[in-house]
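Slide 14.
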Amino acid sequence: MTHVYVPRTLTDAAMTAVRDLGHPVVVGGEEPPTRDALLRDVAGAVAVVCTLTERIDAEFLDAAGPGLKVVANTAVGYDNIDVPAATARGVRVTNTPGVLDGATADLTMALILAAGRRVLEGDRLLREQTPWVWGPRMLLGLDLSAGASLGVIGYGRIGRAVARRAKAFDMRILATPTSSSLTEEDRLGVRFVELPELLEQADVVTVHCPLTPATRHLIDADALRRMKSTAILVNTARGGIVDERALVAALRAGDIAGAGLDVFDGEPKVDPELLTLENAVLTPHIGSAGTATRERMCRLSVSNVAEVLAGRDPVTPVN
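Slide 15: predicted structure.
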């Protein structure tokens, strides 16, 4: 059967757009399909609209068969896809850059504020009805607007969106060098430094680079030791960029002050020790979870499929 395979249910408008493509549609469900279901339901597909929870590798592509033309990933990152394997089979791969920059940057700032100002610790204190009296030393945290510096690892679209928001808090911005050409507006007075210097100087380190073999565990024990003991680490990119065992050890030892994590190395599983740490703020990969943002992501994926099936280049190609 020549069909469009959608392993995870998209937004309502996007599902309508999928059905308007003129092909039968096979839909998984709200939850990720099992591997067996994934390989079964992709057989004969002409297009796939997937999410980051599906592993798109040679086995998957072979199960689809020679009629597969496009895999549209509903995410910016595409570390779940074996792009060379897809390219070798003539399969176009697409992603959804640009449409989720603001939402992810907003959540990044929320994590910076929550971890830096110990918001959840205060919330738990009240909910647990712990006796308290205001005092000069109570729940002291990081003053963003008192000259704090933000270190951006990965100064791409999302990194720049975070930097713009941080500027509104009067933060000084450091960033790792970028190969992208930047407008004066993009530069924002940013000082570009190599990673070791950024780690040593930043009061907040925020991760926005893609997960690649080169960036896996980029933030390891050595990197964490370079950071200030008062610093906050935030990751809204991919969990594998941070060595979580090293991070747990650093948080326990007070080598850094706190962390805000929206992504995890083995998600949806989370290291049980992270769950016990008062100085870790944790969210379940909700960086793009604005209603309008998710709608734009899903519609862009479907638009990419429509273009490829019509014999045109996709809107946002990866290969």
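Speaker note: The radius of gyration is 21 Å.
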